[in-house]
Amino acid sequence: MRNLLLVFVMTISTEISANELTSVRQQELLNMLKHDCGSCHGLPPKGGLGPSLMPEALAGKSDALLADAIQNGRAGTAMPPWKSFLTVDETAWLIQQLRTH
Amino acid sequence: MKLSYSRSLLIFLLSSALPGHAELRATGDLGVVIERETGSIQIVNTTKPVSLSRIEGLGDLSHASIVFSRDQRYAYVFGRDGGLTKIDLLQDKIDKRIIQAGNSIGGAISQDGKVIAVSNYTPGGVKLFDAVTLEQLAEIPAIYGEDNKLSKVVGLVDAPGQRFVCSLFEGNEIWLIDAKNPRQPVVKKFKDIGKQPYDALLTPDGHYYGAGLFGEKGLALLDLWQPEKGVEHILEDYGKDDEQMPVYKMPHLEGWTVAGDWLLVPAVGLHEVLVIDTREWELVKRIPVAGQPVFVTSRPDGRQVWVNFAFPDNQTVQVIDLKDFNVLKTLQPGKAVLHMEFSPRGESVWLAVRDEDRVMVYDTETFAETARLPAQKPSGIFFTDRANRIGW
Q: Which of B37, B152, B246 is opposite residue A43, by nearest beta carbon?
């Protein structure tokens, strides 16, 4: 009985994680990517004041590096920290969007 | 006798009905609205107000800037992808279009209206073009330092004496370009002017060029009447001990930020507008505002300054009264107010509200909304009265 309960709870948690990003929130994030990231990185993000974020440009950079740049900014450059506005999961999702578009 | 009178009348009436005769369009009250996501622009009339046409095919306008020809007939659109498009505002069409660089941020038109200059990020430098044909006349790579690297060029303006002035973001330099012979421009370089000049303005009289600094506090000031004095660093001490907040969108400096004797600039990394007395170049006031300012633009008479903000406060606009430097009004026009432009004599101001897909017109006296026009993700708004302003 306990095992069944455990499996049930684990299933629910997994489902919640996958659905955490509602489609409304996904649209908001994509809008942010296009416009608020885009104001420095371009639209499509081929670069501007900030470097290109096109898949080719990101290919040699790890997810961890990109997540750190987005969450914490890059000191000495114009890249600000976005951690007050993006969760770690949302940041990871955005990086995936950038890599695949 | 009677018959020929009737015939003349008939001919007169017919010719009046033909297009081109009845619909003369003048240039003084026209404007251009950038639609940043679709690579299109709208030509608008600011008197009615109404949209006259949409023109597509301008490439990447995710950042775009415009100067107007001396006769106000043409708008030169500088697009982020290096596109330079000459738009015929009387005939609603692209007159000429070239791709002149990989990545570009803005441009200027010379004192005599014959040369267009563009400031490029990639390759870093300035290029000069014939304003009629867009033939390239010269290229000036923004080389700096011992390693001969190329810097992004920002803050490009025209100046009296058929000159241009610009700044090098990585190079930390200000350049004064003499373009009297546009095929062989002569460059005077001012080095170590301060860390990371991000934009610049020319005072309306063309006397001073001021570059805002991103990497440190203050502004770099060049007196164009006495360039031999070199570049002066003003306001370097203000806010030294204040906690620097992150910047979510680069502030922009434009000629408007000068109102009477005051220069008003966005404070970088602080929620403030700084008021500088242009007689002594001293800070006289720090005005707390709702967010990180992006544009600080003065109404043509200099009585009000309208301020918009960077993410995440970009749904707010504030109006400062220059009689006492207080915030007179706070407006919430909608999500993502990207730009503001005043009608030529300032009775109204147009706001680009990106995420509401509209441009809104406000009365600057009553703050009432007087009109709205649909627009697709609008950003910059530029009116033709800029055509004969020094530095615009």
A: B37
Q: Is residue B232 part of a domain?
A: yes
Domain count, chain B: 1
Residue B388, helix vs strand vs coil: helix
* Three-state secondary structure call for residue B4: helix
Domain extent at residue B130: 100-248
Domains and CATH numbers, chain A: 22-100 (1.10.760.10)
DSSP string, B187-230: EEEE---SS-EEEEEE-TTS-EEEEEESSSSSEEEEETT-GGG-
Cα of A13 to nearest chain B Cα, Å: 31
The answer to whether residue B24 is domain-embedded is no
Identity of the residue in B121, B214, B246 whose CB atom sits nearest the CB atom of A48: B121
The length of chain B in residues reads 392
Q: What pTM did the predictor assign?
A: 0.90
Nearest to B85 by CA among B112, B110, B53, B107: B107
Q: Which residues of A touch B380 (CB under 8 A)?
A: none
Q: What is the CATH number of the domain that holds B219?
A: 2.130.10.10
Return the residue matching tokens 């008939």. B10
The pLDDT value recorded for residue A14 is 41
Nearest to B246 among A46, A47, A81 (CB): A81
C-alpha–C-alpha distance, residues B64 and B78, integer Å: 5
Query: Closest residue of B to A74, CA-based?
Result: B246
In tens, the pLDDT along B192-238 reads 999 999 999 999 999 999 999 998 888 999 999 999 999 999 988 77
Look at B355 and A38 and tell me if their CB atoms are within 8 Å. Answer: no
Best residue of A28, A43, A71, A83 to probe chain B, by most B CBs closer than 10 Å = A43
Cβ(B359)–Cβ(B350) below 8 Å: yes
Cα B283 to chain centroid distance, Å, stands at 24
What integer pLDDT is reported at residue B200 of this predicted model?
Answer: 95
Do residues B108 and B67 make contact, with C-beta atoms less than 8 angstroms apart?
yes
Regions of chain B short of the pLDDT cut 70: 1-3, 6, 8-22, 239-241, 255-256
| Cβ-based contacts of B152 with chain A (< 8 Å) | 49
Residue A26 to chain B, least CA–CA distance (Å): 16
Residue B117 lies in a domain: yes
Length of chain A, in residues: 101
Task: Pick the residue from chain A with its C-alpha nearest to B106.
Answer: A48
Can you tell me the ipTM of this complex?
A: 0.83
pLDDT digits (tens, 9 = 90+) for B144-154: 999 999 999 99
The answer to whether residue B133 is domain-embedded is: yes
B262: which DSSP letter? E
User: Which member of A38, A47, A81 has the closest CB to residue B103?
Assistant: A47
